[in-house]
Amino acid sequence: MARVVVDVMLKPEILDPQGQAVQRALPRLGFEGVSDVRQGKRFELEVEGPVDGDALARIHELAETFLANTVIEDFTVRVQDADGNERPVEAGTDAASEGAVA
Amino acid sequence: MARVVVDVMLKPEILDPQGQAVQRALPRLGFEGVSDVRQGKRFELEVEGPVDGDALARIHELAETFLANTVIEDFTVRVQDADGNERPVEAGTDAASEGAVA
């Protein structure tokens, strides 16, 4: 069982009122030095079987068709390792196969 | 300028109807092999200045008091490197200082 994370964020050119509200509130709350905040969604998928290139290709398709609205949102697929580090994987690249997790 | 990511997810013992709805829809849409889905929030903070132990401690405090409802939610602070890899950092540990990004 491996954990694959899909992050869905509004595209940079799309206004993000939620993130702006957070960013504007921070100085009032005593937190300086944060110049921008963007808020998005995070999906944690528990995947059965090996996370190989094929599985990642299916997850990319799933994210593109179902989790993200690609007109206004970008998504990133990341594989989480045992230490909690998350490495982005592109669809159909060698990186996907390099990152195979049993 | 460095990017710090705060992930906010419902605690494992809290029911996640959004994630369940996604998980149940997947087989209908032709995606098999995903045994669980959890949906949460992702905040991308653009931090001015160095992301050292002090900055990360402030971001932990910010996440705990403002971004997450720690009664029902867990949060993770991650530092994103130039390759897009995201490494979790604990508050007040050496990991935070090891991970200092200028």
TrEMBL record, chains A, B:
S-adenosyl-L-methionine: is it a keyword of this entry? Answer: no
The UniProt catalytic activity note for this protein reads: N(2)-formyl-N(1)-(5-phospho-beta-D-ribosyl)glycinamide + L-glutamine + ATP + H2O = 2-formamido-N(1)-(5-O-phospho-beta-D-ribosyl)acetamidine + L-glutamate + ADP + phosphate + H(+)
Its main subcellular localisation, reduced to a broad class, is cytoplasm
Top-level taxonomic group: Bacteria
Q: Which InterPro entries match?
A: PurS, PurS-like_sf
EC numbers: 6.3.5.3
Q: Which GO terms describe its molecular function?
A: phosphoribosylformylglycinamidine synthase activity
Q: Which pathway or pathways does this protein act in? A: Purine metabolism; IMP biosynthesis via de novo pathway; 5-amino-1-(5-phospho-D-ribosyl)imidazole from N(2)-formyl-N(1)-(5-phospho-D-ribosyl)glycinamide: step 1/2
Q: Which residue ranges does the record annotate as region Disordered?
A: 82-102
Location in the cell: Cytoplasm
| Transmembrane intervals | none
- UniProt keywords, alphabetically: ATP-binding, Cytoplasm, Ligase, Nucleotide-binding, Purine biosynthesis
Instruction: Note the subunit structure.
Output: Part of the FGAM synthase complex composed of 1 PurL, 1 PurQ and 2 PurS subunits.
The protein's role, per its UniProt record: Part of the phosphoribosylformylglycinamidine synthase complex involved in the purines biosynthetic pathway. Catalyzes the ATP-dependent conversion of formylglycinamide ribonucleotide (FGAR) and glutamine to yield formylglycinamidine ribonucleotide (FGAM) and glutamate. The FGAM synthase complex is composed of three subunits. PurQ produces an ammonia molecule by converting glutamine to glutamate. PurL transfers the ammonia molecule to FGAR to form FGAM in an ATP-dependent manner.
Family membership: Belongs to the PurS family.
Report what the protein is called: Phosphoribosylformylglycinamidine synthase subunit PurS
Organism, scientific name: Streptomyces smyrnaeus
